[in-house]
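In this section we turn from sequence analysis to structure. A common task in structural bioinformatics is to predict how a protein folds when a small molecule is present, because the ligand can shape the pocket around it. The inputs are simple: the amino acid sequence and a SMILES string for the ligand, here adenosine-5'-triphosphate. Study the lines below before reading on.
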Amino acid sequence: MSSGKQSVKVVVRCRPLNDREKALGSKMVLSMDLRRCQCFIEKPGAVDEPPKQFTFDGNYFIDQTTEQMYNEIAYALVEGVTEGYNGTIFAYGQTGSGKSFTMQGVSEPAAQRGVIPRAFEHIFESIQVENTKFLVRASYLEIYNEEIRDLLGTDTKQRLEVNFLLLSLHPVC
Ligand SMILES: Nc1ncnc2c1ncn2[C@@H]1O[C@H](COP(=O)(O)OP(=O)(O)OP(=O)(O)O)[C@@H](O)[C@H]1O
Ligand SMILES: [Mg+2]
């Protein structure tokens, strides 16, 4: 993870091959140098071609956990939100790449609990202070094919007009 203080950070996470990919005999084409935050993609069969190389603000390979990602990436951002700064964590990737695994996660093993439950726990712990009341508003939505759908609504097919933050936190005077 780079130590720079830039306001936008882009990190990449690689998931293990799934059963279907293993059954097809697929080979892992991605490798990472975690210390240098670099990843390398090789073209299968093209032994003479050098791998394509990309550098990110943080790299997470198949054995890294969401706990590690949260502590290194999300923790400071959520902490900033509790101090009044805006913050967004955005998962991007093609279908099956691991967005829900990272954001929602699984309860077992505990190290793979998702970013969302971790952030909620973090926020509710930080607002347990005396003499101040907080109002926490949350929404959960999906942008798919350029349409926005409310995933907490009863009709998830209904398009949603959104003009507020995904998660906002206000001290109530
Ligand atoms: N880091 C990981 N370690 C182990 N399994 C993973 C990891 N990331 C994803 N998976 C598994 O890969 C599968 C696909 O992941 P996931 O459902 O999170 O993809 P997605 O990006 O949310 O896809 P979609 O866009 O279709 O919702 C799931 O079975 C998930 O458990
Ligand atoms: Mg998903």
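Confidence is low (pLDDT under 50) at residues 164-168. As an exercise, try to locate the residues that line the adenosine-5'-triphosphate site and compare them with your own expectations.
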